[in-house]
What we know:
The chain has helices at 2-6, 21-50, 74-109, 116-151, 153-157, 159-173, 177-187, 203-220, 222-231, 236-251, 255-280, and strands spanning 54-56, 60-62. The radius of gyration is 22 Å and the shape is globular. By secondary structure, the chain is mostly helical. It has one domain.
Amino acid sequence: MEHVRATGGREMPGRPIDMPVSQRAFLGVSALLFAVSAAVTIVSAASMSAMGEMPMPGGWTMSTAWMRMCGQTWPGLAASFLGMWIVMMVAMMLPSLVPMLWRYRVAVGGTGETRLGGLTVLVGVGYFLVWTAFGMAVFPLGVALAALEMALPALARAVPLAAGVIVLMAGALQFTEWKARHLACCREAPGRCLMLPGLPADAATAWRHGLRLGAHCSYCCAGPTMVLLVVGAMDLRVMAVVTAAITVERLAPRGERAARVIGAGIAGGGVLLIARAVGLG
Length: 281
């Protein structure tokens, strides 16, 4: 602050105020967590790819993520899937979550609260708990659908067309008011959507904020998540594209417009998948 006083209370151009140590630590830990989760995701995807995929009627292949390997139990498969899912979600969602956590820290720090580290961790854990619950719901549905597709060749042959229709629907979802409402809640600073003004900055409030943020985020990401699950849950290229799309619509200056542009791209991909499926049929 010496340079401020020396210039009559004005900041010197090109002389930014130093970032507090706690904020630098927050960014450093976030970067490290992203790097580790991304590396583990890449290794897991490579391992799944090395195991191969099962050719299915209709000219497509099924991921081994939904199938038990020799000597593997169902609880073991579920635990393996959930572990991969959590790490993948951390890698995919952290780029757009960090700015929201930063805004939370600024809002709470403005009240004089000094336990920013612990409260931030609670928000993050609550956020990813919602995504963990989502993965727990996805796994049995995926396993059941895989079993039906292996038992019913006619159903398996319809998968490419169904995948195209689902991707088309995911693109259309990007244009809805429902999407816009949840995207607005994800983009704004803590306020009416996420944390009511006047509530104490304590552990319970941080936990609720993380859960609400996770719920809004999972609703907002419904379209891209559908694409991820249908096109390739462990395909690194699909994960990278979906991560970029989610990050852009959260952080771009015109988020709603970005979401619609992304929706148009997704819908176009759905049309191409449908055309390809009809041509193969």
